[in-house]
Amino acid sequence: MAHLRPEEVSLALKQEIERYRSQVQLDSIGRVIQVGDGIARLYGLDDAMAGELLEFPGQTMGMVFNLEEHHVGAVILGSDRHIKDGDIVKRTNRITSVPVGPALLGRVVDALGRPIDDKGPIVTDKTRPIESRAPNVVQRQPVKEPVQTGIKAIDAMIPIGRGQRELILTCSLKILARSRTRNNPSHTLISYSFAEKSQFFYCPYIR
C-alpha cells in the first residue's frame, strides 16, 4: 500500500484550488403580482432603474416605467397572454434602447428595434434610449423646404413641408403616388418625382 507524503497532498490541494472557478451568478429578480392590458405590477425589484429592460417568461421583454414604494410598474413589449401572477421577472441592468442609423432604412422592426422582415440582422453599433429628452423648439430644424409629390392637385392645394411632424402624411402621399403609378403607367411624372435624388426624403412609418 502506497503512502502519501504531506507535500504531495499539499501540492494536489494547491492545484485543485488554482483550477477552481466560481460558477455562482447573482441575478436580481422579482415576481409578477398583477398583469393585464400589457401592464404588469412587479414585487421585489427594489433596485430597478427607470426605463430599464426586463425579461419576462418566454423571452418576452418589458420596460420599467413606474417606480413606487412597494412595487414596480412595467410595460410589456409583446404579448402578455402567457404571463401570469407569480412569474419570475429578471433585471438586465440595461436601459431600454433601440438601434439607430442608416442600417434601419427599408427595414421592419418591432418595439425594441429587432428585425421582423426576415432580411437578416441590423448591422449598426449606434443605439438610442427609447425614453430620451426630445430636442426643444430652438434646437429643431425649421420646416422650410417643400415636398413635391408629383400630383399637381395635391401640390397646389396642400402645402407639405419636409420636416418634423409630417412624416406620416408624406409617407401616405408617397404610397398613394406609387399606387397611382402602378395603376396608370402614363403617370411618369409621379414616379420620376420620387426617384429623383434631389427630391429624395426619408419617411419612417410607425404603427
Textual characterization of the structure:
The chain has helices spanning 6-19, 152-157, 167-183, 188-195; strands spanning 29-36, 39-43, 52-56, 60-67, 72-77, 88-95, 97-99, 127-129, 145-146, 161-162. The chain starts with 5 loop residues before the first helix and ends in a 12-residue tail after the last helix. With 207 residues, it is an alpha+beta fold. The model is unreliable at 166-171 and 179-197 (pLDDT under 50). The strands form three sheets. A six-stranded antiparallel barrel has the order 1-2-5-4-3-6. It has a two-stranded antiparallel ribbon with strand order 7-8.
Q: Structural class from helices and strands?
A: alpha+beta
Which sequence of SSEs, written as H and E, runs from N to C? HEEEEEEEEEHEHH
Gyration radius, rounded: 28 Å
As residue ranges, the low-confidence spans are: 166-171, 179-197
Shape: elongated
Helix content: 10-25%
Distinct helical segment count? 4
Query: Major sheet: order of its strands?
Result: 1-2-5-4-3-6
In a nutshell, what does this entry contain?
The protein contains 4 helices and 10 strands; from the N terminus they run αβββββββββαβαα. It is α+β, with helices and mostly antiparallel strands and 207 residues long. Helix 3 crosses helix 4.
